[in-house]
Design brief:
Layout (H helix, E strand, L loop, with lengths): L1 E3 L5 H7 L2 H10 L4 E2 H8 L3 H13 L3 E8 L2 E8 L5 E3 L9 E7 L6 E5 L3 E3 L24 E4 L1 E9 L6 E13 L11 E7 L2 E8 L24 E8 L2 E4 L2 E4 L12 E8 L9 E4 L10 E9 L3
Parallel strand pairs: 1-5
Antiparallel strand pairs: 2-4, 3-4, 6-19, 7-10, 8-9, 9-18, 10-17, 11-14, 11-18, 11-19, 12-13, 12-17, 14-15, 15-16
Helix pairs in contact: 1-4, 3-4
C-alpha cells in the first residue's frame, strides 16, 4: 500500500493510531480470526473489537469475509497489506531553475522484451498479451500500462537546456512494479536503469501488487491483475546517483554526456540478473499516481 501526505490517507493514519488496532493487525498477520477469537485474545468485549475492525476495514488494511465454521457461517477477518510506503511531498530545489518533461509510458523508441508481456490503454488491451510483436502496434502510443519479464524499454526525450545553462540535477520519477502472471505481492525483480547507455545501477523491486485496487486503475481491469506500483525517483547529481535518497551508484552528471540534443533512458531486466522478476510500468490511468514518466532538469545559468 502506498500513502501520501494528504487527506486521502488520513483514514489509514487514524487506523494505525491505536495500540489495540496494532495488536489486532499483529494477530491477523499470524492467522485469520473472527470477532470472538480476537476478543478472547485481547480480553475485550466483542462490541469493542467490532468497532476496531470496522475502522481497519475502512482503511483497507484488513478484509472480512463469510466462511463456514463449526457453528455455521462466520465472519473472519484477515490482513491484506504487508507493507506501507509513505511518499512525502517532492523535494524543492530553490537555488536552481527547472524544466520538466512528462513522457507517456507508450512513447518508447526501442524495445526488446520476452513474455509474459503486454500493453493496455485505459480502455482495452493493445493487441494480444504475451506476443512481443504488438509492442510495435501503432496503438502503443496510447499505452498506459506496460509489462514484460526480461528485456528493456528505451525512451528518448529532448534535452531542454540551452548553451548558457548548466545542469545541476537530473531527476526521473515513475510508478513501477515487478511482473508476474496476474500478480504476486512478493515477487522480487532486479530492475536496471540506464542514461545515454551508462548503467546507473540496479534496484530490487519487492513485488507486483494487487492487495487493493489501484486508485486510478480502470474498472474493466480485473482485481487479480497488477493494480499499482511503487512511485520511485532517481536523482543524478555531481555527488552520484540516488534512488529515493539511497545511493544507487557513484555515477555522476559528468559521466552522462548530457550535452547532446537527446537524452535516452532505459528500464531493463537483464538476462543475467539474480532475480528475473520482470517489470510493470504504470502511466496515467493506472495505479496510484496520475503521472507518466517525469524528467526534471534542474539547472543554473553559466556566468559570462
Amino acid at each position: 500500500m502506498q500513502l501520501d501526505i494528504s487527506k486521502d490517507s488520513i483514514h489509514v493514519y487514524e487506523a494505525l493510531a491505536s495500540e489495540t488496532r496494532i495488536q489486532i493487525l499483529n494477530l491477523l498477520s499470524q492467522s485469520s480470526m473472527n470477532i470472538k477469537e480476537l476478543a478472547h485474545a485481547l480480553h475485550m468485549s466483542s462490541a469493542i473489537i467490532t468497532r476496531h475492525i470496522n475502522q481497519l476495514e475502512k482503511a483497507q488494511l484488513i478484509r472480512t469475509e463469510k466462511m463456514p465454521g463449526k457453528s455455521g457461517i462466520q465472519k473472519v477477518s484477515k490482513l491484506v497489506v504487508d507493507k506501507i510506503e509513505i511518499n512525502f511531498p517532492t523535494t524543492i530545489y530553490p537555488n536552481f531553475k527547472m524544466r520538466s518533461i512528462e513522457l507517456p509510458v507508450g512513447h518508447y523508441t526501442d524495445y526488446d522484451v520476452t513474455p509474459t508481456c503486454g500493453l493496455a490503454s485505459s480502455k482495452a488491451f493493445i493487441g494480444h498479451v504475451d506476443e512481443p510483436k504488438y509492442f510495435m502496434d501503432s496503438s502503443r502510443m496510447d499505452a498506459q500500462i506496460i509489462w514484460f519479464t526480461q528485456g528493456y524499454l528505451e525512451y528518448k526525450v529532448p534535452n531542454p537546456l540551452q548553451a548558457n545553462e548548466r545542469i545541476e540535477l537530473l531527476e526521473i520519477s515513475f510508478e513501477i512494479a515487478s511482473e508476474f502472471p496476474y500478480s504476486n505481492n512478493v515477487w522480487p525483480s532486479d530492475i536496471s536503469f540506464y542514461i545515454n547507455g551508462h548503467r546507473l545501477g540496479t534496484w530490487t523491486c519487492p513485488g507486483n501488487f494487487s492487495d487493493i485496487r489501484g486508485k486510478y486503475t480502470p474498472s474493466w481491469w480485473e482485481d487479480s491483475n497488477s493494480q499499482y506500483g511503487l512511485f520511485k525517483t532517481i536523482r543524478i547529481s555531481k555527488h552520484g546517483t540516488h534512488f529515493d535518497g539511497d545511493i544507487l551508484s557513484e555515477l555522476t552528471l559528468d559521466d552522462l554526456e548530457l550535452t547532446s540534443d537527446l537524452v535516452s533512458f532505459r528500464i531493463a531486466v537483464e538476462k543475467d540478473a539474480k532475480n528475473i522478476g520482470g517489470t510493470t510500468i504504470f502511466g496515467k490511468g493506472f495505479g496510484n499516481h496520475q503521472k507518466d514518466i517525469e524528467f526534471g532538469f534542474y539547472y543554473s545559468e553559466k556566468s559570462n
